[in-house]
Design brief:
single chain, alpha+beta, four-stranded antiparallel beta sheet, 7 helices, about 25% strand, globular
Length: about 220
C-alpha cells in the first residue's frame, strides 16, 4: 500500500462519528481504536476494538462509505492512513486484498454481535476481564492507561461497578491498578475470569487467520 502515510493515534481523539463519510481508512500499527455506539442522551457503549489485526473503514469493501459508529482512539500509538480514493483503487487492483479484508470484516461483525449479547447477558466482572484481555491483545504491552470513568463508559455501567470489579481483580492479583495505569499480572487467570465471549472471538480469528489472538504477535 504505497499510498499510506504514517499518522499518530492520540488517546481520546475521535476519528469519526456515526454517519460521517470516511475520508480516510486507518491501519493501526501500535495503539488501538474503540468502536462506540451512541444513543440519544445515553452513555456511550463500546462494541468493538481495532488494533494491528484490522482497520478502521472496513465497511468500504461493501461499497458503504459512511461510518456505522463513533471511532475513538483508546490506546495511543501509530497507524498508516490512506485516502478513501486510494483505498478503493487498491481494492480494485488486488483480489487478495479484497479477500483478506472480507475475512476481517466477518471477524469484526462477529465481535460486534458478541459484544451486544455480552452486554445484555453477562455480569460486569467477566465483561471487564474480557475487555481487558481484548485491550491487552492490542496494546503490545502488559500495561496501559485507562481510568475508571473511561472503563465505565466503554462497558456501559456505573463507575462504582467498575471500581468493585477492578478491586476484586487487584485483590486476586490478576491486575495492578493505580491512577489510571493498569498492569496485567496474571493473564491466564484473567482468561479464566472472562466470559466465554473472549474465547469465542479468538476462535473466530483463528479459524480465518490461523492460531493465536488478534494481538498481531
Amino acid at each position: 500500500m504505497g499510498h499510506c502515510e504514517p499518522v499518530n493515534l492520540v488517546f481520546g481523539d475521535t476519528l469519526c462519528e456515526a454517519g460521517d463519510l470516511f475520508g480516510h481508512v486507518h491501519f493501526p500499527l501500535s495503539g488501538f481504536i474503540s468502536l462506540v455506539a451512541t444513543l440519544d442522551a445515553q452513555q456511550p457503549l463500546e462494541l468493538g476494538l481495532i488494533g494491528s489485526e484490522g482497520m478502521l473503514g472496513a465497511t468500504l469493501i461493501l461499497g458503504v462509505d459512511t461510518a456505522p459508529m463513533r471511532a475513538v482512539v483508546q490506546g495511543p500509538g501509530s497507524a498508516l492512513r490512506m485516502s478513501h480514493a486510494d483505498f478503493q483503487c487498491a481494492l480494485e487492483a488486488s483480489s487478495a486484498l479484497r479477500k483478506q479484508l472480507a475475512r476481517y470484516l466477518y471477524v469484526l461483525m462477529s465481535q460486534l454481535a458478541k459484544s451486544a449479547a455480552c452486554t445484555h447477558f453477562h455480569e460486569t466482572s467477566p465483561r471487564l476481564a474480557r475487555w481487558l484481555l481484548m485491550t491487552h491483545d492490542r496494546a503490545h504491552a502488559n500495561h496501559f492507561h485507562l481510568t475508571h470513568v473511561f472503563l465505565a463508559d466503554m462497558l456501559g455501567v456505573r463507575r462504582s461497578s467498575v471500581s468493585v470489579a477492578a478491586a476484586e481483580m487487584q485483590r486476586g492479583e490478576l491486575i495492578a491498578y493505580s491512577r489510571g495505569e493498569i498492569i496485567i499480572l496474571d493473564r491466564a487467570a484473567l482468561e479464566r475470569a472472562a466470559c466465554p465471549c473472549y474465547e469465542a472471538e479468538r476462535a473466530d480469528y483463528a479459524r480465518l487467520f490461523g492460531p493465536g489472538s488478534p494481538r498481531g504477535t
